[in-house]
Amino acid sequence: MWSSCPVKFTTNPKQTPMMQKKGSVPDFTEPWHLSDAVLVVEEKKFHFHKGTLSMWSPVFERIFSSDFKEKFASEIPLPGKDASEIKELLLVIYPTSKPIGETNCYFLLPLAREYQMDQLTERCEKYLLQREKTPHQAIDFLVLANEFNMEDLCKQCVEIAKHMSITEVRRHEKYAMIAPEEGRQLAERRVELLENKMQSSEQRVNSVKKEVKDVCEWGLKEMGRVLYQKKSPEGRRIPRALSDCLKLIEETASESVEVAVMIQLVQHRLRSIYEPMYS
């Protein structure tokens, strides 16, 4: 028979790992919530979970699962690393999920590349995609995007930087650092932009020419009708076709100096419109 007496567990608070409180940010300076390893950086210790770091980094996964000496080591040194940057890295990948921003993005990218943390690179890229950029700044980010293989950021930067002239791009301090492929894409998008602008300009010019042409033709028709009414007050058939109006105007111009001058002005205006259109 099982005893009905309640079982009591006794623990030593000094030996119990610290539990993570809801909504709190990990400190990593002490053992906490089943942490099972320690990173040593600049003589500072960061307690972490091998499983968490392995999920983010294939590099650490190999270290913890292969015949590396660190597999069974309780402390793993990271020589040459900055302690504040490693702590920031841990804060970002742990469930607290500290956001990527201007203060940590640029040093997290090299760490993500070194430890093959593709998800972290994607998060950095997502932040950079949302960041506002001038065309001049887009060149800086284009170089950065190529360095860390962020394809979406490359495309975005090319689209923004295409609004710079070739001269402006050449004067940029990072012009020599633009990769050949991105340089080719930038040149192509710049040419396409200029072609579209030229087509748009031609369309606007043609639209204005057509409007002026229509106004001139309307004026000639009105002039022909007025002259016809003066010549034939009782006439019933007012000319409507432009050719009929022109014929009447030419006949009247031979008899009136004022009409002749008006005709010359209109002809000059029409000639400046039609000749470029059909030359």
What can you tell me about this protein's structure?
- Among the domains are: 26-131, Potassium Channel Kv1.1, Chain A, CATH 3.30.710.10; 206-231 and 238-274.
- Helix content is 59%, strand content 5%.
- It has helices at residues 50-56, 58-65, 83-93, 105-114, 118-130, 135-147, 151-161, 166-171, 180-231, 242-253, 257-278, and strands at 37-41, 44-48, 75-77.
- It is rod-shaped.
- Mean pLDDT is 81; it is low at 1-16.
Q: What are the key terms here?
A:
rod-shaped; disordered N terminus; 5% strand; mainly alpha; SKP1/BTB/POZ_sf; 11 helices; single chain; 279 residues; 3-stranded mixed beta sheet; 3 strands; Potassium Channel Kv1.1, Chain A
What is the helix content?
55-70%
Radius of gyration, in Å, reads 39 Å
Shape: rod-shaped
Overall pLDDT: 81
Q: In sequence order, what are the helices and strands, one letter per element?
A: EEHHEHHHHHHHHH
Keywords: Coiled coil
Protein name: Kelch-like protein 6
Coiled coil: 184-211
Organism: Stylophora pistillata (Smooth cauliflower coral)
List the helices and strands and how they pair.
Layout: E1 37-41, E2 44-48, H1 50-56, H2 58-65, E3 75-77, H3 83-93, H4 105-114, H5 118-130, H6 135-147, H7 151-161, H8 166-171, H9 180-231, H10 242-253, H11 257-278
Parallel strand pairs: 1-3
Antiparallel strand pairs: 1-2
Helix pairs in contact: 1-2, 4-5, 6-7, 7-9, 9-10, 9-11, 10-11
Short description, anyone?
The chain is mostly helical and 279 residues long. The chain has 11 helices and 3 strands; from the N terminus they run ββααβααααααααα.
